[in-house]
Design brief:
Helix content: 40-55%
Number of domains: 1
Number of helices: 5
CATH superfamily: Response regulator
CATH class: Alpha Beta
Shape: globular
Order of helices and strands: EHEHEHEHEH
Strand order of the largest sheet: 2-1-3-4-5
Radius of gyration: 13 Å
């Protein structure tokens, strides 16, 4: 399975990628939503991604805009989207889910928390 880790913080991208790789995923990373959309297009020949972890606050294209763009593209409708963000207000959770996120995970995160969310969206071991 393949995962795309999207976060503007390099250390967070590496941390999340490491946790997902420990669950058996091959990972790629993107620094914002626009970079992630380019990687999605490039990945089509490889079968795309099964899941993306998406930060909320990023330059150029934020997480909710990325989620909406993916959900509007029929080529990627089957991809699972997991918001991984420090945003903790209920209206933000509702907004992300309404935009098309499959699950929402609040930072700081642990490997166990991420593994549970991956299972909840039907992926993982």
């Amino acid at each position: 399975m393949r995962a795309l880790v999207i976060d503007d913080s390099l250390s967070m991208r590496m941390y999340v990628a490491s946790m997902i790789e420990d669950q058996g995923f091959e990972t790629e990373m993107a620094c914002d939503g626009q970079d992630a959309l380019r990687k999605l297009t490039a990945s089509d020949a490889k079968g795309g991604f099964d899941v993306a972890t998406v930060d909320w606050d990023m330059p150029i294209m934020d997480g909710p805009s990325f989620v909406a763009a993916v959900r509007a593209d029929p080529r990627h409708r089957g991809m699972k989207l997991l918001m991984v963000t420090a945003r903790q207000h209920m209206d933000e959770v509702i907004s992300a889910l309404a935009a098309g996120a499959d699950e929402y995970l609040m930072k700081p995160i642990t490997p166990e928390m991420l593994e549970e969310k991956i299972r909840m969206i039907g992926l993982g071991r």
